[in-house]
Fold this sequence. Notes:
GO terms for molecular function: glutamine-scyllo-inositol transaminase activity; pyridoxal phosphate binding. Keywords: Aminotransferase, Pyridoxal phosphate, Transferase. By secondary structure, the protein is of the alpha/beta class. 40% of the residues lie in helices and 14% in strands. The chain has 2 domains: 11-239, 3-Layer(aba) Sandwich (Aspartate Aminotransferase, domain 2), CATH 3.40.640.10; 242-367, Alpha-Beta Complex (Aspartate Aminotransferase, domain 1), CATH 3.90.1150.10. The model has no long low-confidence stretch (mean pLDDT 97).
Amino acid sequence: MIPVYKPEIGKEEEEEVLKVIRSGWISSASPAVREFEEKFSAYIGRKYGVATSNGTTALHLAVTALGIKEGDEVIVPDLTFISPVNVVLYNRAIPVIVDVEEENWGLDPEKVRKAITNKTKAIIVVHLYGNPAKVSELKEIAEEKGIYLIEDCAEAHGAEYEGKKVGNFGDIACFSFYANKVITTGEGGMCLTDDEGLYEKMQILRDHGMTKEKRYWHEVVGYNYRMTGLQAALGLAQLKKIDKFIERKREIARLYQELLEDVVTVQKDPPNGKSIFWLFSILTEKRDELAEYLAKNDVETRKFFYPVHEMPPYRDFAKNDYVVSEKLSKLGLSLPSYLSLSKSETSFISEKIIGFFKGLKHEQWDQH
């Protein structure tokens, strides 16, 4: 079976992790954690980084640090992995679910503008499947309305919008380093910001709410959202390779595009954006049948996320039309796109897809 994804772990990662093990500093107190925070935030272009246990805890840290509380409204996309919606509910705030755009799969700025009320405190924009959303436009809306912008960059490390890396637009930007992300720490996440006050607040909240000046003294209710030294060591080794990894992802995407663009709708760079093609994806009305056919030919795929508004815990928050997210969810299929996927494997997968559609044409002809 050709899997959808598998991490690229080499000798360098082994050596970095062993270095931390031999030092004895394996917990969140490890100097490797601070080094990873500094180097990753510098890579993206932000002043401060706060490493966390995973991408969801990074988002929750951001929401909490910005003071979002019960009764506040936060705009979230209808097509996303569920974390941005759940973290709003953790704080008993209200997720306002808004449709996405067809050209980049991210929040539609005009629909966001219409959804803002006097209770709106923030927008969470998700750069879905490696595609940058229209984040400049969303930042302008947030500044105009005096609300916060949080970027969920979990699937888009190194993607760009208008020449800037995503993660540079929000008051806080959140990343995930789960095993299937462009760079991984196994689990793990990070919050980035340029605001020193937010940085210090997130550090305290992440570390049980304990003050830096007085050990075991807690002035706020906090969380244990810390990253370990072992995770950070893995991340440091991966970070050295990130540009090479992103170029490899784009090479795989270019080959898929070349082979499949006459057969299905293929993922491409959106206007003004540079995608990292986290999981290279296609759109087709025969999505379910194609996925089944590929599985029989030893090719694993992933269907797009379900629209948030359709799932039981979130139906009461559905207040808008979701035409685009419903369409994308029904049509979207992610193909194998891990870094060591060979040209012959990419060609094999593409040939199977082309063969599937040729078979459909023959069936239709026979019926006539």
